Structures
1.
Amino acid sequence: MRPRLSVEGAARRLEGPLLFLRRTVEVGYNEAVEVAGGDGVVRLGRVASVDEETIVVELLEGASGLDLPATTVRFPGEPLHFGVGPGLLGRVFDGVGRPLDGGAPLPVARRLRIDGLALNPVARATPRDFIETGVTAIDLMNSLVRGQKLPLFSGGGLPHDRIAVAVARHARLRGAGAAGEHFAIVFAGIGVPHYTAEYFRRSLEDSGALGRAALFLNLAGDASTQRLLTPRFALTAAEYLAFVEERHVLVILTDMTAYCEALREVAGARGEVPARKGFPGFMYSDLASLYERAGCVRGRRGTLTQLPILTMPSDDISHPVPDLSGYITEGQIVLSRSLDRAGVWPPIDVLPSLSRLMKAGTGAGFTDPDHPALASQLYASYAHAAQARLLASVVGEDGLSETDRRYLRFGVRFEHELIHQQAPRSLEQSMLCGWALLADLPRAELTRLSDAQIAAHLGAGPDPAAEAT
Amino acid sequence: MRRATILSISGPVLRARCDDAFAMGEALRVGPRGLLGEVVRLVDDLLVAQVYEDTTGLKPGDALEGSGAPLSVRLGPALLGGVFDGLLRPLAGVLTGVDSPFITPGVRRPAGRRFAFAPLAAPGSVLAPGAPFGSVAGTRPQLCLVPPDAGGEVLDIAPAGEYADDAPVCRLRDATGATRELAMGHDWPVRRARPVACRLPADAPLLTGQRVLDALFPVALGGKAAIPGGFGTGKTVLLEALVKSCSADVIVYLGCGERGNEMAGALEEITALTDAKTGRPMAERTVIVANTSNMPVAAREASIYCAVTIAEFFRDQGLDVALMADSTSRWAEALREVSGRLGELPGEGGYPAYLGSRLAEFYERGGRARTLGGAIGSVTLLGSVSPQAGDFSEPVTSHTMRYVRSFWALDARRAQARFYPAIHPLQSYSEDAQAVAGWWGTVFAGLAGAAVAEDGNEWEVLRRRVLTLLDEEARLERMARIVGKDALQPRQRLTLLCAEVVGEAFLRQSALSPNDRFCGPERQALMLRMLGRFLDLADATVARGATPEAIAALPVLRPLQRMGEDIAEGEREAFAALEAVMAAQFAGLLAAGETAVEEPKGGGGHASAA
């Protein structure tokens, strides 16, 4: 490592989050920078580009208060690192890993690059361990497995925080595998209001989980460009907990939309060519460098599961933030405003929701042999119900066939009995609830189930089609 | 060694001052860690290069070295069964350090692996460019080819034995008297298409085992297909199914800017599966190029060329090769990102103006051909497209549509109902249908009781019938949304019912079911014929006064709609039995209808025939 270099009086220009320096020292691209102004405050940054004369520094903690003559810049000679070690859990940090809880500084066992390194696809193990979250819409319909990244697509005013807390509190393995495992929760608040951060902290405290959680907080009032660092510090800590301390880590990143807006702000200042809605063209790769840090590694016991939360501006799922996220993450859980209004909790709209890794972790040998077929049939039937509902809204319920009217009733019960829940359910309870709903549909409609499955789970009741005639 | 000194760095793009002359497209080693790069622009004594690895820590003043050759990959026996990064460096064992699961930049190509070589030529014989001069025994026999730019008289050739794939095993003297040493593998520049003797027209389909593709929207061997779809519509799942079950000899699977976990899953599955044709592990016919979304973006741009070069190499051995690229949109985005860093004027959607021509170049490298060595081989290109917000009018999708012959559009609504594969039958098309009609004609002719029609063979007739039915359904659905289903004529209600049956029985194919995961051409033909029979019977029965609702209530509909899952490959009798049951139930319906009260005139449709 080169010695730490310090430069004074080289600052020539400040433009938004960019600081232009005369190149008087040897620094490498993307290396870390510590900028101190006349006010004595130290701000983190990184080298955004460098040529023979100029070093362009991206200030990641806001530029206000800096003045050109008094600015001192220090170059540690390496990219941004985070010193992590035992004792991470139970602590609260700011967005760049400095303790906020008044506790002692963190003992450093390893210094890790906050950007991480790409996990070799060959070294990855396929995520297969089913996590029971207690939420039927997830467990039964869109199962989560360890090592997956499954975001919540939400909107302002929807209870995504409550769902994330419910998942974090209940998440467990089923059966024998559950004993003796070490869990940890890493929470990264990215531009969230104080009360959201406080809600998470208090909920974790109330359930006694704070001792195995680490919180990284960039609040709404903090520098917006620091939001680019917060998830990286949090994920670096999570990787340490997962792959060094061999824990099963659940990372909650909220709110990814705030992260993307900060990215847009910095990219705009750098003069990057914008793609859609002003967001930079490299946002896909940038988001991937965060989301892809979830996974399981062959030969290591720990896993890193991500539950990012993003709020869709005006509930638009085609907005670049959810759109690009959806292309990277392994599915998405979409919240619905109309279900929320109808008092359904959790208001998860299962139709646009998806878990891509569900097939790897459900079925015989993982959950229940009939679990995939049941979920598939519930999906088909609920989609039919949604179509019947659309038709009914135009031609009225009387214009529907008897079967379609059955589907209408199925749709209502699906939302209010299966999706809606007052307490966490085990997968078995969720499945029983699903079979009970299907019992009301004519057997001939259940084309996703085999005769054996129908006989085993619905055999006792009469065929509603026969009843009707 | 040609050298240059770095002046500036911004992301994956750098500028340098040359001490020697560099060539456009020349491969570079950059900085103290020897990162891979490529010259993309030359101005006086300045060069602009893109670097394929993380440039963190590079400084102005660092040196870079030219290799004297364009970006090339080593083609040879080490490819089959391997997993490589976007620049064709093996990912298994080599790129990872001793115990790090992470990829570290600056890794070089490993030393040659050893393979069992057997000569196919004798000293004194004359070899044309592209001719085989040896074979490699192993799990799957491969040929050693004379590079397309070499050829001549064999001076000497090594006896059978084990050699490293980069050790010379044969010496040629060409017409000018120059000698050239050949190894089992040779280097080839990735951006240059490997030459062929001549291109040949397509005449047979690449069988995918997916009914909706093979029977309705076929792709020929040597064809090109695009799979566009928004996120969650099942592009990757479909491509992975094709990797496992399609009828090509060699599969090149390119994961371009996609998910690491899915890549790991695909790897595990391919390793575990057995190829039905050869009884060997599926992995042995597969080459995987994995450049996940968090791996360097410029390498993503190069990976698509590496993959298609590999495909061409196997084609030159006389094999049918399928290249699955998931996803071409990520490649286009890499192109956009690098273009932006180069300061090029952005075109539509921020993509560079040459996006269309680059796509055309790529798809043009597919096709069926007579190779330089005289064999016949093909490269079939299957590329997924990830349009932003599922909008097919965006630049990548719309340009791709101009160059592909088969278009398999994925539909979000079907995917939401977990109706897989979620191919939208009205937005999809295939220009190869005519070319493979003869092939399908023989499949149907191989079944008992083949029908002959004037307007095409049985397959063409049935295919047209299904597509017309689905088209009609869409029209009626729109109408029903205004007037209600009850207000439709019985014949129209029948169309809706038939389309639903065709959808469940034929278009939907369950990847969960061991029977239905793969559907061979004969079973597809039997199912298609069964549905043809169903449509005939239903039409005739409604024409004689039965209601569509009565048909919907027939018990046979359930086994009919589940025949894909319930009837296994090769069970012809089961289809015959199902057809007999169906015929009997329709006959019963008619008999009941005719003894019952006369059907009210005007077709109110509420009276049940039962």
Note: The domain at 2-70 of chain B is CATH 2.40.30.20 (Elongation Factor Tu (Ef-tu); domain 3).
2.
Amino acid sequence: MSGHGSGRPAGGGAPGGTSTRAREVWAEATDGFNRWVAGDPAGLDDLVGVMTPVLWHVVRSYRLPESAAEDVIQTTWLALVRRRAAIVDAVAIGGWLTTTARREAWRVAQGDGRALPVADDELEPRIPAQRSAEEAAVEQDEGDRLWSAVDGLPERCRRLLRIVAFENRPDYRELASDLGMPVGSIGPTRGRCLAKLRVALMQTGHGTDGHHRGGERA
Amino acid sequence: MSELSRDALLGIVRDVWERHDPVPEHLVTSMQAVAALAASDLDVELMELVEQASELAGARGSSSYTLRFVHGDTDLLLRVAVDGDRSRVDGWVVPPEPMTVRALPEQTPARHAAVVTDTGRFELTDLPLGLLRLRLEPHDATRPAFATPTFEI
């Protein structure tokens, strides 16, 4: 488990699906936290190693520039160290970290005047980025088709699905307040976003043969 | 046509983002350093930074600056000199007191530690650039260790 999560290259999707891998990450985080609290500094190393990639994707979903995202993640780790004594439930450490990171990302994004979508009409599709003919041709590549499907989602869907994909069962109540949405709307919104993605994937010719895992192409 | 399951869709979302917006290579390592440094603050008393002054950059990308920290009756003056990708720290403890000064994190404690001389001086050489803090351990065992806050070279 040494080096786990440390700059692991993209596309290393575990075969077990999102929830299995997220659960594993959360379990490793809890284990690292427990060892650190018990006096083993390597436990903190492992906790940071396994959760920093998750925090990256959660924070970047707020469209922060790389340097601002790194600052948010650093703030999150400093908060953990400072408030360690207040964290009683080691099992919930992953959720504590992602929630803290989301709040800070939200705060920074708003402070920047980087307006975040709040209205439901944000569910309208984004205007697709302009592509040159060459780019369109190259897009035959499977990975690019997947990307254009995800990239073409409405902003709120992009953010919500990215967060949900990397978090292990995010707390909807906190997620709702962080995303500026009514609590009751998160579940339905997620369902609609998944449906939109399903349609987008079919439109790009993906998923029609039951072969759907981008990570298995290699 | 098989309908993609929720987990399969979220798996695609994750694969796509890992490929298109990967975690920067240095990020995990630097966050581990940040957390370890912050954690090492937990068990020592912190000195306070009271002065910081930079000097004119010298030739060949070298530069230096001074920092002054205070803790109780102890003053710590540091002159940090950067030359290329290495740095050195010349320190002066006032009043002089026998103590060991270590650069944290202690990956190579033998190399980056020094004992303060009778006149209160010490030097740490060949330090890597990056985040650094110094931990001062009085040889008088009744005196607790104290440390500077983290500063960046």
Note: The helical segments of chain B are 6-20, 27-40.
